[in-house]
């Protein structure tokens, strides 16, 4: 991995070589000749859950667009190491608690205003301030003063008062090119986190009208928005010729085209009516490599799991959750439904991450006898069907039905499929205790660290509405071990604590790990140099048009 410029810090490495994707076609430098017509291409996108604001974009559909519009403090090299190719010139600390961030000169927003230290501090305070209801607010929970930005709530999670402050005391602007960040406890991996979209800067114009800025964002990335996002349709972004980064856009524009069904998108890319499809439908997995040849890509950047609504009394006993997991034959589903393009999950941390352990999950292997014994001991009512929730239009139907059939056959529990909601309707249920049974969820890492597979999803600090802990799991022992891992001063010591936290989690089983996905992407003959990054996003700036 590439070494960073900071001191006393830890970076997470070890991403496997299988993630290194070869470029297709030849690299072009046409984008360097600002103003030239270098063509356009189209890319599939699902409907984003929220407006296109970095602090409110935590799902991968909106994040694909946001990643084209913004560049953060740091980026990541192909092995997951921190690369200082973004806005930051350095991030340094003597104690892993107070960090000094020095910025490079010359970065501007798409409205021509400069990117300064204040741009980051204002953006982070906005994201952390709970009345703004930003989905990524919890990423700032370890900054001193974060708690003062959280409004008191009632038992239903509704705001019942104003926060004590509007700015975190742990953020301080030194000058236009420098700011400091003071954390509530040492966190040696903090510089690894700040390449994530929650940490992107915002221009002054954003705060004048956040709603309008969420529709037509003003970022600092290789592409800019000359028009608002059209729900149900999408958005076309054009190249920003004053972009200060090295990864300049090689085309004049990219059209992000919204589809409600991935099967329709696949039909379009086969016919040449769509250029790039990030994830093909499960049924196309066997034929796509032969059909597309070198225009077919694979990566293993994400995981799929079933969340269990711990707020529902029926799933409150961990023995029930353990039994449901042991009643599912993941390998059989991976073979029958996905043609082997899913790896059965036996852990929470992805196998490509340093610190991953195969078979760390005792209950992730099928054991029908043990599962039934646990259900009996928990006095589980098998006469009531289990409702299985999943989002519509994303190819989830077949494998969720297979899960239901296995639960019926192996455990004697009937099921009802609840798969008629698109992401914009589905995700709010996750945040408001709206699911009545196991619900499909997925995770693509925000930054390459085992911590990212644990704290953002299962810690008390990540409970909704400020976080993504949608099972509403809480265990002080888990939180303590993660915190100790965050404060560790060596990679080995941090991993040891994260592994122990994972053990606690996998004993409690608030989720049922299902698959690590071999993501399959395809593209048309119209484009070349299509790459998928470590996070499952297409590197839109690198794509070139062939005709």
Indicate the topology.
Blueprint: E1 40-45, H1 60-69, E2 75-76, E3 82-83, E4 88-92, E5 98-103, H2 117-128, E6 171-175, E7 178-182, H3 190-193, H4 204-208, H5 210-215, E8 223-225, E9 234-239, E10 253-258, H6 262-271, E11 276-277, H7 288-292, E12 296-307, H8 318-326, H9 330-338, E13 342-344, H10 368-377, E14 386-391, H11 397-411, E15 415-421, H12 423-431, E16 439-444, H13 455-458, H14 476-487, H15 491-508, E17 511-523, E18 527-528, E19 544-545
Parallel strand pairs: 1-10, 14-15
Antiparallel strand pairs: 2-3, 4-5, 5-7, 6-7, 8-9, 9-10, 11-17, 12-16, 12-17, 13-17, 18-19
Helix pairs in contact: 8-10, 9-11, 14-15
Q: Would you mind describing this structure in some detail?
A:
- The protein is an alpha+beta fold and 547 residues long.
- The chain has two domains: 17-270 and 524-545, 3-Layer(aba) Sandwich (D-Maltodextrin-Binding Protein, domain 2); 302-518, Dipeptide-binding Protein, domain 3 (Roll).
- It has helices at residues 60-69, 117-128, 190-193, 204-208, 210-215, 262-271, 288-292, 318-326, 330-338, 368-377, 397-411, 423-431, 455-458, 476-487, 491-508; strands at 40-45, 75-76, 82-83, 88-92, 98-103, 171-175, 178-182, 223-225, 234-239, 253-258, 276-277, 296-307, 342-344, 386-391, 415-421, 439-444, 511-523, 527-528, 544-545.
- The strands form six sheets. Strands 11, 12, 13, 16 and 17 form a five-stranded antiparallel beta sheet that branches. Strands 1-10-9-8 form a four-stranded mixed beta sheet, with helices on one face. The chain has a four-stranded antiparallel beta sheet with strand order 4-5-7-6, covered by helices on one side.
- A hairpin with an 8-residue loop joins strand 8 and strand 9.
- Helix 8 runs antiparallel to helix 10 (368-377) and helix 14 packs antiparallel against helix 15.
- Mean pLDDT is 90; it is low at 1-34.
């Amino acid at each position: 991995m590439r070494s960073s410029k900071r001191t006393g810090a830890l970076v997470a490495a070890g991403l496997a070589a299988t993630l290194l994707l070869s470029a297709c076609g030849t690299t072009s430098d046409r984008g360097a000749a600002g103003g030239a017509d270098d063509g356009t291409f189209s890319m599939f996108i699902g409907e984003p859950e929220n407006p296109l604001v970095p602090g409110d974009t935590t799902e991968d559909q909106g994040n694909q667009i946001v990643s084209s519009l913004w560049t953060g403090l740091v980026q990541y090299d192909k092995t997951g190491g921190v690369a200082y190719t973004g806005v930051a010139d350095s991030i340094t600390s003597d104690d892993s608690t107070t960090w000094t961030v020095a910025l490079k000169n010359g970065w501007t927003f798409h409205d021509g205003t400069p990117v300064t230290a204040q741009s980051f501090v204002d953006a982070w305070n906005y994201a952390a301030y709970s009345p703004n209801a930003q989905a990524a607010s919890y990423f700032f929970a370890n900054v001193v003063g974060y708690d003062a930005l959280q409004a008191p709530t009632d038992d239903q999670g509704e705001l019942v008062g104003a926060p004590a402050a509007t700015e975190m005391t742990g953020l301080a602007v030194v000058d236009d090119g420098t700011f400091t960040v003071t954390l509530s406890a040492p966190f040696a991996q903090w510089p690894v986190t700040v390449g994530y979209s929650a940490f992107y800067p915002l221009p002054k114009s954003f705060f004048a009208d956040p709603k309008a800025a969420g529709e037509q964002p003003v970022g600092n990335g290789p592409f800019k928005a000359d028009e608002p996002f059209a729900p149900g349709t999408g958005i076309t972004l054009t190249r920003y010729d004053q972009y200060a980064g090295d990864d300049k856009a090689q085309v004049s524009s990219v059209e992000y085209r919204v589809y409600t069904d991935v099967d329709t998108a696949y039909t379009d890319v086969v016919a040449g009516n769509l250029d790039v499809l990030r994830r093909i439908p499960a049924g196309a997995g066997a034929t796509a490599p032969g059909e597309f040849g070198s225009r077919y890509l694979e990566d293993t950047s994400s995981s799929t799991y079933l969340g269990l609504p711990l707020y529902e009394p029926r799933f409150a006993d961990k023995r029930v959750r353990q039994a449901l997991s042991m009643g599912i034959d993941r390998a059989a589903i991976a073979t029958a439904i996905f043609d082997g393009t899913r790896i059965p999950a036996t852990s929470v941390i992805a196998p490509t991450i340093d610190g991953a352990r195969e078979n760390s999950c005792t209950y992730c292997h099928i054991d029908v006898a043990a599962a039934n014994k646990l259900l009996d001991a928990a006095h589980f009512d098998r006469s009531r069907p289990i409702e299985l929730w999943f989002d519509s239009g994303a190819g989830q139907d077949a494998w969720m039905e297979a899960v239901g059939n296995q639960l019926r056959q192996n455990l004697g529990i009937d099921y009802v499929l609840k798969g008629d909601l698109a992401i914009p309707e589905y995700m709010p249920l996750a945040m408001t205790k709206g699911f009545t049974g196991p619900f499909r969820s997925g995770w693509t890492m925000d930054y390459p660290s085992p911590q990212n597979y644990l704290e953002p999803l299962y810690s008390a600090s990540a409970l909704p509405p400020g976080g993504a802990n949608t099972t509403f799991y809480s265990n002080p022992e888990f939180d303590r071990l993660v915190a100790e891992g965050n404060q560790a001063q060596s990679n080995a010591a941090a991993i040891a604590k994260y592994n122990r936290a994972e053990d606690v989690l996998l004993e409690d089983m608030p989720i049922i790990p299902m698959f690590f996905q071999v993501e399959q992407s395809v593209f048309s003959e119209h484009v070349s140099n299509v790459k998928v990054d470590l996070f499952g996003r297409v590197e839109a700036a690198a794509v070139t048009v062939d005709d």
